[in-house]
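User: structure tokens for this one?
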Amino acid sequence: MRGSILIVEDQPNFREGLKYYLEQEALGWQVVGEAGTGLEGWEMIERLNPELVFMDINMPVMNGIELARRIHEAHLDTIFVIITGYQDFNYAQSAVRYGALDFLLKPCSNDDINRILRAAFDKLAARRLFKESMRAAKENRLRSVLLCRQADKEQADWLRGCYKDKVLYLFVVKDYFPQVKNYKRKDMYLLQYGITNITDEMMRSMPEEAQGEWHLLQHDQLVIALARGFNAQLWFEKLIRAVSDYFGISLGCSVLGDGEDMDRLIQAYEKIAGKVQPLSEQNEQDSRHMTGKFRNDIMAVIVDGDIESLPAYFTEYYDSLHGMPLVQLRLSGIAHAQALNDVSESLFTNARLLSVQQIMEKISQLNDLNQIREWLSSQSADFLNQLFEWRGIVNGGMNVIQKAVRFIKLHYKEDCSISRTAEHVHMNTSYFSTLFKKETGVTYSHYVNQLRLDQAKVLLRNTNLKMIDIAQAVGINDSAYFSILFKKFFHISPSEFRQQS
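Assistant:
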């Protein structure tokens, strides 16, 4: 997903039109909410934490400038765009001092929106890259300070700034080889991978105020940093219980101390942690890279519309497993299963998904190539069944776009949103919009508007209905918007068309 979007706009028609376009044209973006006033928008920003906000300049209760000021003063990472008309443009420019990314002038074109989305995506990508770099830098310096039991002034000052107002906790794997499990030493990387994945998944579910982050210090040691004052006891108990339930491994948890006091952190670590030789993390990195490669390969085939080639792709992958050591087989299997999960979640509504813990638990029970291959084959078959079903290949000869078109023709006079149509054909909205354009050659909103306006032409030629009545008869509730749309499509106003007919 490229990012999450909130639309704050008091004109329902414009808001809906913008939403339709964002959902079908901006592949990978997700509209997470809509608000009709600035105050509603602020409350949704606090609750949903969207990455991009489109906000109108003139709104009831709280205008766009005030909303921009609140975002700025709260030091949020939210990127925002001001929607304005020409008459208010000078006033809207005052939002620049609060960090507005750009301005969207009404009436706006698809090119205007695309330009803003490209700029927003570039800013988000740079921000995410910076965060990843910062995370790696913090992890490396934290290792240097705690494992070497010393900190020079430059390192200490830098880390103090990073962990200001945070408390650091140390989680230690007590034993990778409990008596109740028949783990081998070569399984250690697999178990470490599972524990860090559980930690990462659970960290994502923490409330925003926790400001949580985790770092792998050594092969058996995790450092977790949380906001000072956040009560993490229940969360820690849940993490320890999850690792114990899935792997039979016990975690110990200790408070290292305040992140601003490096000397005391070093002393606390010295008392808590024994000297354990760090091991290579290459296996964990390789597995993450494998997951990304599988996911990208599968998505590329689907977007190209060549899903019939996927069974051969999976067979070729299974053949490549021959000769691998068991630990590598398991790591590769985890990566493949997670990639299928990721693709399913991004494409399908009501996708049948396995949690990371379920994948890890299952893989740990498989002891040879045949068992792993058989299980992965069943996962791939289930994925392909979902994919073929959603594409309509086994749907009585009617593919998914034909089914969607039939639904649109039946419902274009009422609620015919892309989300409703995608739900009708059991597809993820973003992927459906991409597939719809690929199959029909036009965007979803263009198709629906064309259908509505073609029906409006019939009414204009053959009836004396008023413009508002014609607009409503074809599913457009605003007569002014109907006239603008009609002229945009046919380069003539509705009244001029009626006179010429």
